[in-house]
Design brief:
It comes from Paenibacillus phyllosphaerae. The chain is an alpha/beta fold and 157 residues long. It has 3 helices and 8 strands. Strands 7-6-5-4-2-3-1-8 form an 8-stranded mixed sheet.
């Protein structure tokens, strides 16, 4: 039997359930500070427009004002990147949290994202959580020189 190719939209972003839950958990554990890290996964096509996020690699936040900004700890950034490569994954995204603000890039976020060639940028907002304690998750995708809000599909394996 011949395997059928995946018929996915041109900008598909898939995220494994455990990776999404890990980002949310790390964000909650870091309160009142911002959490941050990198996302490892696979590109589904050669144009790098469709991707699957499999693993979250947390990186310590070394920013001076951690409650409203983040900066990767350099030694952990290198270790996380090597671990990701050891697992035969590609760097497919960055994430960080907003403890008290919506999941919209701040001016500092936009300045940091400006030079990035990484295809996705995730913000986990813990602001305005209701009784169910649900975080608000937003993913942004690079389109030329700007970042646009995108949709993602949560998958279970």
């Amino acid at each position: 039997m011949q395997e059928q190719p995946l018929n996915l939209p041109d900008s598909t972003i898939l995220i494994h359930s455990q990776a999404l839950l890990r980002m949310i958990s790390l964000s909650g554990s870091a309160l009142p500070n911002e959490a941050c890290g990198i996302l490892g996964g696979q590109f589904i096509d050669t144009e790098s427009t469709r991707l699957s996020i499999e693993t979250v690699y947390p990186i310590a936040n070394r920013a001076t004002s951690r409650s409203f900004t983040f900066s990767f700890a350099p030694e952990e950034w290198v270790s996380a990147y090597y671990a990701m490569q050891k697992n035969r994954q590609s760097l497919v995204g960055f994430f960080h949290s907003h403890p008290t603000t919506p999941p919209i890039p701040s001016q500092a976020d936009l300045a940091g994202m400006q030079w990035s060639s990484i295809p996705t940028y995730w913000i986990i907002s813990l602001a305005d959580r209701d009784a169910s304690n649900i975080a608000h998750v937003k993913v942004y995708r690079k389109a030329g020189q700007t970042w646009l809000p995108s949709m993602f599909t949560q998958i279970s394996i």
